[in-house]
Predict the 3D structure of the following.
Amino acid sequence: MGSGGSSHLEDKHVLIIGAGYGGVQLALTLMKKKANFTIVDQKECLHHNVAAVRAIIQPGFAKKTVIPYEPTFGSHFRRGKVTKIDVETKKVTLEDGTELTYDILVVASGSFGPMKEIEGSCEEIIAKYSKVVEQVKESRDVVVVGGGPVGVEVAAEVATIYPDKKVTVIHGGKQLINPEATNKFVEKVTTLLKDMHVEVLIDDIVENLDELPDQVRGSYEVKTQKGKTVHADIVLKCTGLKPNSSSYSNGLSSHMTEHGFLKVNEYLEVEGLKEVFAFGDCCNSKEPKLAYVAKLQADLVAKNLANLINKQPLDPWKSDAVKIFMGLSMGSRHGVLALKNGYILPEFIIVNVKSKDMMTGSYFKDMHQQIPA
């Protein structure tokens, strides 16, 4: 096993691309160790997208989902969009032409998916959320397309905050959440949705999805492949997940899978490269693409950075480090939390840890900032 020590971390410049959950976790650890590092992101604040499912529904909640980087990281933070990586010269180029040099590169650029594509300043992100809040508020019939974790959470938020609205979830899979979810987990989620009077259509696909605007109030007919038509005043699309590869496709394309994920070995190094790590949603590790997993992998990368600098053996990523299968908030008063072995924990745990405030308080605390009132 490697030492995981912090000595000599100040002697090498670590460049982190991406300041999402994993990147921020790694940067916070490196700050404690007084390491020499820079973290780059095109946004000026952490977009706490786990809480986005509430931010698009509950008025005034959006301000609790953005946490500025600079007050936490100071001169370690650099705002910019990475457009090129040159592993030969160890340089990263930003959109404005600025070149940043590094000794060790870490890619933690995350992914795009439901509720993850909002960009801009803190004020711009809040404004975009606030606009959707008004669209939902004025709608009577709400259709959520996609019954994965995000779709289920969004439907539950709408039903909790606006119990008089008609909420329908349309899901193409044979069961809610994902194929790996146990029957007991799915049954618990389904029961909670039913108690909230949410209608669920399973194993059916919206065939006119491309014709339906996302998060825009209007009058729409949502048509499914099985011949059903559901009226909607607003459609909330909660489908799809793809890696945010724009920062590394120019330079690391030969190290990507066909779906755009970076190929990593057991130590979370990019395959075929030295002194380049990747973790979280952008890499091809088999674990679920969750903030919880990204933070666990960030802790391992922090250890391996020290191991690498100190010329110690690297520690391998072990999938059994992931103890939780999934934790869903189902509005502010309910939720479902299951371990990897299938055991469902008492509901009060997930309610207190996540559902009550969507973990906004803990993230502001981690960033050493005060959460807005």
